[in-house]
Structure prediction request, 345 residues.
Amino acid sequence: MTKKIRIKNLPIGGGAPISVQSMTNVSVCDVDSTLRQINDLQNSDCDIVRIALPDNKAAEAFSIVRKNTDMPLVADIHFDGRLAVAAIEAGADKIRINPGNMSFKQLDSVIDCAKSNGIPIRLGVNGGSVNRDLLKKHNGDKVLAIEANLRQYITYFEDKGFDKIVLSVKSSDVSEMVRVNRSIAASFDYPIHLGVTEAGPAYQGLVKNSVGIGTLLLDGIGDTIRVSLTANPVEEVRAAKEILKSLNLRDGVKFVSCPKCGRCGYDLEKAATEIYEYVKDMRKNIKVAVMGCEVNGPGECLDADVGIAGANGRCVFFKYGKIYKTVDESVAVEEFKREIDLIAK
Prediction:
């Protein structure tokens, strides 16, 4: 089990529930748009929001954002340690840095400020930013080079008496990301942040993140996750929640629907989409099934709390594999939503 740290009032590691992160994708200098995105993320059950601070103007805007939200905020800093210090002083709950792109003098000032304010630091090494000398030393093996690079940073911070650390090693290559996280999990007991960096647009990115993050979570590795997508940040949160729910690591409705075959006698795609949208954000541990026909529906979903299947203009409702109600297809979805509400209560 990893160590436990806190980001604001949110525990990370040490057996705490796995948290979901996302990142605003507008300039923080546009304070109103940034706050709208944070509010949208909060409403979608995001746990932590990260904000990029590229310059002094951004750091000043961050202080305004901080005063207008209670969400745990992480300041994302590169190259300039002074921005990290400014963010901490403005109320950041955590700092994300890549120590390799700061001088030791700047790192020392960041460490001192974080230590004084009790703020954790996420140490990151990505496949594209690994130390080139270490890469050469390990004969191009990026996994070994990333771990060695991270070990150097951890040692430096520990020697300075700082141990409120979260580790993050990412790659756009899924197998590489899995290998390096397994390696650091076996070597260190700090909380680990998981993600596949530069994963791509929604469809591709969801597949890559699901494989990488899901594999590691099944290994018991990972304390906080971000599903990186070239998409609206809310989509990252939705995807992350689905990954966690599929592994029984987060409360919520388990939704299943069949892939449809020639036996299907109603508009399955429309019904499944509408019902999924209705239940996707419910924090209830129930299973909802939307199936294509009354033959396979109840039989294949014996463990569903409630289900629906269609045939010849009629839809049957079932609970735990038993048919209990039949309604016209024209009113079936709305009737089924009411059945879900009853089960959820």
About this structure: The radius of gyration is 23 Å.
